[in-house]
Amino acid sequence: MRSTYTYLDARNDKSGELLTGRARHKTSLQLMYKDKAHGWEATLGNDWLDGYRYTLSGKTGMTGASIMNVVVNKKLGKQASAYFGINNLTNRENDILYYDGRIWRGGVKVTF
């Protein structure tokens, strides 16, 4: 298990106003599983954003969000691995934070 917390106080140097496009608070929690004998790894994580300052149609506001992601990796011998993941597992949409719903991803890594 791993957890992180970030506090951000990003301000405009001239006006002292908080910058837009940034979350004031970000908390993450990840649960990780490793099966070294069979080459499996999995991570389930959630990010919480609070105090995300934005400007939309000339108006400034604040919002927050909670996004859950999962990824599974499998070693395929000594030189290859494959992964499959889902970002935004709960399929939340948020126009301000540009979350368009669930994103499926996968890939293969080969080293020579």
How would you describe what is shown here?
This protein has strands spanning 2-7, 22-35, 40-56, 59-75, 80-87, 93-94, 99-100, 103-110. β2 and β3 (40-56) form a beta hairpin. It has a 6-stranded antiparallel sheet, with no helix packed on it. Strands 6-7 form a two-stranded antiparallel ribbon. It is mainly beta. It has one domain.
**N- to C-terminal distance:** 32 Å
Strand order of the largest sheet: 1-2-3-4-5-8
- What composes the largest sheet? 6 strands, antiparallel
Could you name the ranges where pLDDT drops below 50 across 5 or more consecutive residues? none
Shape: elongated
Structural class of the secondary elements? mainly beta
The share of residues in helices is under 10%
Order of helices and strands: EEEEEEEE
Beta-strand residue fraction: over 45%
The number of helices is: 0
Number-wise, the strands total 8
**Quaternary status of these chains?**
single chain
- Indicate how many domains the architecture comprises: 1
Q: What integer is the average pLDDT?
A: 93
Rg computed from alpha carbons, rounded to a whole number of angstroms: 18 Å
Summarize the structure.
With about 110 residues, this protein is mainly beta.
How would you summarize the topology of this molecule?
Layout: E1 2-7, E2 22-35, E3 40-56, E4 59-75, E5 80-87, E6 93-94, E7 99-100, E8 103-110
Antiparallel strand pairs: 1-2, 2-3, 3-4, 4-5, 5-8, 6-7
